Amino acid sequence: MKALVYHGPGKKAWEEKDQPQIMRPTDAIVKIIMTTICGTDLHIMKGDLPAVTDGRVIGHEGVGIVEETGTAVSNFKKGDHVIISCITSCGKCDYCKKGMYSHCSDGGWILGNLIDGTQAEYVRIPHADNSLYPIPADADEEALVMLSDILPTGFECGVLNGQVKPGDTVAIVGAGPVGLAALLTAQFFTPSELIVIDMDDNRLDVARKFGATKTINSAKGNATEQVMALTDGKGVDVAIEAVGIEPTFQLCTEIIGAGGHIANIGVHGKSVTLHMETLWSKNITITTRLVDTVTTPLLFKTVISEKIEPKKLITHHFRLDQVIEAYETFGNDAKEKALKVILTNKS
Amino acid sequence: MKALVYHGPGKKAWEEKDQPQIMRPTDAIVKIIMTTICGTDLHIMKGDLPAVTDGRVIGHEGVGIVEETGTAVSNFKKGDHVIISCITSCGKCDYCKKGMYSHCSDGGWILGNLIDGTQAEYVRIPHADNSLYPIPADADEEALVMLSDILPTGFECGVLNGQVKPGDTVAIVGAGPVGLAALLTAQFFTPSELIVIDMDDNRLDVARKFGATKTINSAKGNATEQVMALTDGKGVDVAIEAVGIEPTFQLCTEIIGAGGHIANIGVHGKSVTLHMETLWSKNITITTRLVDTVTTPLLFKTVISEKIEPKKLITHHFRLDQVIEAYETFGNDAKEKALKVILTNKS
Amino acid sequence: MKALVYHGPGKKAWEEKDQPQIMRPTDAIVKIIMTTICGTDLHIMKGDLPAVTDGRVIGHEGVGIVEETGTAVSNFKKGDHVIISCITSCGKCDYCKKGMYSHCSDGGWILGNLIDGTQAEYVRIPHADNSLYPIPADADEEALVMLSDILPTGFECGVLNGQVKPGDTVAIVGAGPVGLAALLTAQFFTPSELIVIDMDDNRLDVARKFGATKTINSAKGNATEQVMALTDGKGVDVAIEAVGIEPTFQLCTEIIGAGGHIANIGVHGKSVTLHMETLWSKNITITTRLVDTVTTPLLFKTVISEKIEPKKLITHHFRLDQVIEAYETFGNDAKEKALKVILTNKS
Amino acid sequence: MKALVYHGPGKKAWEEKDQPQIMRPTDAIVKIIMTTICGTDLHIMKGDLPAVTDGRVIGHEGVGIVEETGTAVSNFKKGDHVIISCITSCGKCDYCKKGMYSHCSDGGWILGNLIDGTQAEYVRIPHADNSLYPIPADADEEALVMLSDILPTGFECGVLNGQVKPGDTVAIVGAGPVGLAALLTAQFFTPSELIVIDMDDNRLDVARKFGATKTINSAKGNATEQVMALTDGKGVDVAIEAVGIEPTFQLCTEIIGAGGHIANIGVHGKSVTLHMETLWSKNITITTRLVDTVTTPLLFKTVISEKIEPKKLITHHFRLDQVIEAYETFGNDAKEKALKVILTNKS
Predict the structure, then answer these.
(1) Which of residues 202-221 of A touch C (CB under 8 A)?
(2) D245 touches chain C (CB under 8 A)
(3) What's the rounded Cα separation, in Å, for the pair B65 and B204?
């Protein structure tokens, strides 16, 4: 088969690889129908994730068709259409039993990281019964690719951890794909105000179309002051960090109101300064989370019943064998106005 | 009347003051029976809290007898014995209605801070109906002084925010009075392990007597390594910070397990470094809180039914007019093995 | 002033009454701008509530202008426009401190029940600071009348107690004003399916316009079978009872899925049979609740930000002095297609 | 092997059966070390559970040694000592993913019911990875037999569903083994009062030894009146029903305070009358639950750390081949003062 293979920092190739085989009774082999590229894949390609080694097939999102199943797989059979979760979960370790699949002792985020991933014609999915989700006959599979990672990430790490509730004032810092996924899913809980903050006017335009009630370009003025002005000096109920750098994290701690929740989604490469000298008495909560994908069934129902339209996040389409070109586009997201790109396997 | 008056950094006096008067219909005047000294009072005396000005009567804890009530006070009448809450709450602002009395728009922590306090023969209590709690005839009033501040602080900021549950492994960093109050109240939820960490062997001895299952002297070895060894490398479910400086906060972030809760109680004077580069994917929660005293009724029931013995925290007794001497003892807590000192008004 | 006075079963009059006076420092006198009629008022008029005695002014909903305040009232002053809550809460008893205003030891539902109510030109509101809510200058006061009772009742007793969450299948049994209020506010949490069941086709039409995804006329077939067919035999996640009789309660227990929540809103006059022989192992939750109106501030924010349009519930308008006629219309709700009627004080 | 076999109402025999074999890759065969008898087993023997058919091996509790594992079992291997959960869970159906193992679509309570059980020398355990729990080398296995069913049943259905919290007044109606398991585990949350109600003075004696603060013999007076007298007429915060008949259920609804929780554990054979005409406005919650055993890991930690001593529940010991005699004793529980009987396999 053909697959996108990482060959060390800056080097990747669409090349021939052995087709994956069932290795354990709980495995399934899935033929990819569609996949996509994540911001994390760009980090991998730069060499920022040293655990990813030369020869690895990248990618942790996608929908596909079950090609083969191990003897212990009972939820799926050959021919079933499935959503591939970015998180592999065994369903039987202490962490899985607590719903913390991200820390599964025989899984977690391993796909396109510690084992070969989905930017390929075929992929092996360990613990298939717990790590795949069935797609009904008439569903829109492009929309469902967004359930692999981005929608549960925005929802679990941002919206649920932020405890968004009706009437709240919510700020989302960062309007990239994950911040926009938080924006879409925050509306499940009917906040009164959804303030989106970014430095890219195009993304802020998109945010308004997706439901932001206010937008702030933080490159063009003091965002903290603007948020405080919008909230009568009280600050927001929920601040969602969807970037992963110190300035955006600081902004969240400056605009959070007493009793508020800061929900971090961003992947941080460095430490941040936490101003406990002011925060200690503000009764705030800060959360971090690697997505667990425990809400995939819930999100699936909201997509199928058209309460949310995740296809809005898709800006570009390519054939899977154009994956190198797709990386170019996705890597120049500001110029290309790219959010999510769909790669379709025509083989 | 006589009262302990702050006269700027390092200067205090037990001196004559005008007896407080009813100023608003919701006020009560309370004659002090017993009061105590808080670590915060030492900070005030050093000049660390510039909002406290020359002439202020210090103190925010105590039990007393209602001497007079304003026309709108209905829960109390002259002669009633009462617990004085360190937090004044109006019961009718947005924050009070959410149970966040600490941020009451006409209250919060004002006693012995922005208005005259309880280290005096009499004190004026604003919003008396919501800021006092009744004491039944046969109750042990010394035990109930601990309900003014220290017990709700340890319980709300440490135990409730830490979400301690049966079977948990809990670490408490700092075995001063507030850390010990967290230790006592954490046992309400039956954790399996209660690890207390401090640099003072005497306090660790006390902690073991109060229910710690393990103690670690962090001056004598690497506390992080010891906690990790005790938890099979997984870290703790709950880490309670009861000091308020960077090293103890860092320790909490090092020993916290995936999915765990860090509950900050300590009053911080400076910022801390937060290692988001490792924490972002650990699914942790960090909370801060100024005590709300919303659990005073609950704690009262546990004291009256003898589920907890807060008198254990009392190490020294003085007459109220010996308050200067009491500050000496409390200020030399390590040498004097002092936790809480009781000051009794014999006038 | 003029007021609607109850004179025993079947007898009421729009007649002269003494204008109410401040009786306690926490009282306010409010001049009524608009009021409305509740289903409970019809029960009172029939004599179903013996606690309501001859001479009582009826009505527990409305918006008005503060005319006078007692000396302890600090949140409001003469001239302020206010929402009158159907529940009076002192803010300082054990129940109020727990957020259970419905059981306030000096309040609860007393307005138009144990004390004179709002279907009058003026009304006395005890504990005004906690029982009134401010209206900003430009707000739509007709919409806000719905915040006195019907919206918090549908939301708290039905939606919150039912724990509606995104993706859920929710059934609402009874499409009267309260059932429709539950229907409107259930959408705050983005359920996938909202099935409304009633015997009146007009009300089911309204329900569809208000967001019901399915409607069932229970007079024209077996509702249980239809719900089971719609849910693959699994039953619903949440069943909201908004009638108050045995058949509708039974229906809820028949259609509830394993792990589901039955939230009772209906006012019951008789006992019901509970089939514990089948329910004991179904892991269900049944809740009852008299509205607490603790969510009034939250609901206010959703109305002001136009996340919900409670004016949809208003079908008829009258002058306050036409109140007898308004009762006629509201009492013939099926024929008149009446939901909520607005009575405006032109005096 | 030998096993206790059900042969229709009133007929059982300790007789030769084929040793169970691995049927699916997720199965394990466990050699029984110890088992016990449940009240439900008595119902089976009477013929009350028609789903149990002639030839079935009874029993759903026990500890044992893994004899053989299917190819997909990874948590256990031959020789491991294990707790057998009364609930079989696949870990991968919708219900299991929600933590509702009791309704597992390929499990639930099937052991000694729909498939052969544990009152035998060997038992086949489906979905072994999720339905067995490991026992460390030095653990007290007799205590751990109580984790198969009775302890999680009392804890999940009674204490957790009842939402027992510190300072609460809790009533437990029924002091049989399950009521006593609720009594032991309710103390995890430090209620102030634990009132146990039963008609057997011996059981009430046991209850006091196990931590009841008050006991009421409901055969000797009006239990409702006594509870109301003990609670200043307010009723209890939590009422746990541990019998399963109308009078005890009614008692719970009579003694529940406003805002309280009724947690049903009892297995009901008939419907009950629910007095909605008084309960509709009392803001109460009624829950039902078949045990999920999701708290087994938590309970295991409390047993190992000696926070609870479930061995207290064991009153009699037999050899497994004396099982018929053990049934006699357990069936005459009042006369024999029997709670739990331990059956040890000496083969």
Answers:
(1) 213
(2) no
(3) 37
Q: How many CB atoms lie within 10 A of CB B306?
A: 10
Is the minimum CB–CB distance between D101 and chain C shorter than 8 Å? no
Contact A274 B273 (CB under 8 A): yes
CA distance D182 to D172: 8
Nearest-angstrom CA–CA distance, B179 and B185:
10
Q: pLDDT tens digits for D131-150? A: 999 999 999 999 999 999 99
* Best CA proximity match to B301, nearest among B218, B153, B185, B154: B185
Residue with tokens 């959804």: A194
Long-range contact pairs involving A194-198 (C-beta distance under 8 Å, separation at least 24): A194/A170, A195/A169, A195/A170, A195/A171, A195/A227, A195/A230, A195/A236, A196/A171, A196/A172, A197/A171, A197/A172, A197/A173, A197/A223, A197/A227, A197/A251, A198/A173, A198/A174
pLDDT of residue D347: 81
D167 and B192 within 8 Å at the Cβ level: the answer is no
DSSP codes of every residue in C122-139: EEEESSHHHHEEE--TT-
Contact state of B271 with A272 under an 8 Å Cβ cutoff: no
- CB A303 within 8 Å of CB A286: no
**Nearest partner of A49 among A112, A124, A105, judged by Cα:** A112
Touching check for C136 and chain A: CB below 8 Å? no
Mutant choice from C89, C97, C100, C301 vs B, greatest count of B C-beta within 10 A:
C97
Using the Cβ of D53 and the Cβ atoms of chain B, whether some distance falls under 8 Å is answered with no
Token readout for C58 is 């009826």
Mean residue pLDDT across chain B: 97
Regions of chain B where pLDDT drops below 50: none
Mutate to test the interface with C, among A188, A193, A308 (most CBs of C within 10 A): A188
Residues in chain B within 8 Å Cβ distance of C71: 25, 71-72
Cβ contacts of residue C127 below 8 Å, gap of 6+?
A: C26, C27, C88, C89, C90, C91, C104, C106, C107
ipTM score of complex: 0.97
Q: Is the pLDDT of residue A347 over 90?
A: no
Q: Are D265 and C280 in contact (CB under 8 A)?
A: no
